[in-house]
Amino acid sequence: MIEFTGVSKVYPNGTKALNDVNLKIEEGEFVAIIGLSGAGKSTLLRLINQLIPATSGKISFDGINVTTAGGKELRNVRRQIGMIFQGFNIVKRASVLTNVLSGRVAYHPTWKTILGLFPEEDKQIAYRALQRVDILEKVHSRASDLSGGQQQRVAIARALAQEPRLMLADEPVASLDPITTIQVMDYLKKINAEDGITTIANLHHVDLALEYASRVVGVKEGHIVYDVQIKDIEKQTFLNDLEKVYGRAIHNDEILGEE
Ligand SMILES: Nc1ncnc2c1ncn2[C@@H]1O[C@H](COP(=O)(O)OP(=O)(O)OP(=O)(O)O)[C@@H](O)[C@H]1O
Prior knowledge:
Layout: E1 2-10, E2 16-25, E3 30-34, H1 41-48, E4 56-61, E5 64-65, H2 71-79, E6 81-85, H3 96-101, H4 110-114, H5 120-132, H6 148-161, E7 166-170, H7 178-195, E8 198-202, H8 206-212, E9 215-220, E10 223-229, H9 235-241, H10 243-246
Parallel strand pairs: 3-8, 3-9, 6-7, 7-8
Antiparallel strand pairs: 1-2, 1-4, 4-5, 9-10
């Protein structure tokens, strides 16, 4: 579904964030990207929907070269990719419904969406998306009145309303407490399992990666240094392997479940 071939990213200030990355992700996978702060995880994620452009190499999404796509073709790719951020990125002064309906904008002419003219069918899609994350009762609340975990669920509902085939989650739980973290990860996993939506999540906690992902990819200094299918590995082997990614062993107190 997604293929990186020799992809590098150098930011305008000269920072080499990714260096000759080759990576293939198949439909339906739940991939956790792990690595130290600054390793290049966010860059890797954002290249997929061209939030940032690659410096060299090729990224394809279902055979479409997104690195050269523009206009209609790029819009078509982006429509299929939902995105969730650490800071939720929802419009706080707007209602929950308005936020979720914004996931539908790519399906309509801009002038209609600016005027808030969404067809009834879209509202039904938004209600269903909110139901999936058990927050339908908040549909008319102002987003700013919700807790962080609830706001992230609204963000997931907005991404779902887009009817995506791929979900990119950039540190989706980094701002949440451990209990809310589990809830949000459970929703992402459920959506991946039930809808077959391919999911790629940057995660700071390695035990979340181990528990929720089907595959873990480790990034270090812009290179992919680790790539494992979770079903093929014992927990202790996985923890030992993390030295390749973090440059040192992981201690028990760095694991969420041990906090
Ligand atoms: N817009 C930018 N301009 C210049 N350098 C950048 C920019 N964005 C990221 N970088 C640099 O690129 C490198 C990779 O950053 P990236 O955000 O991809 O890492 P990360 O693994 O996601 O880190 P974190 O876990 O802290 O979010 C870092 O050295 C970072 O400082």
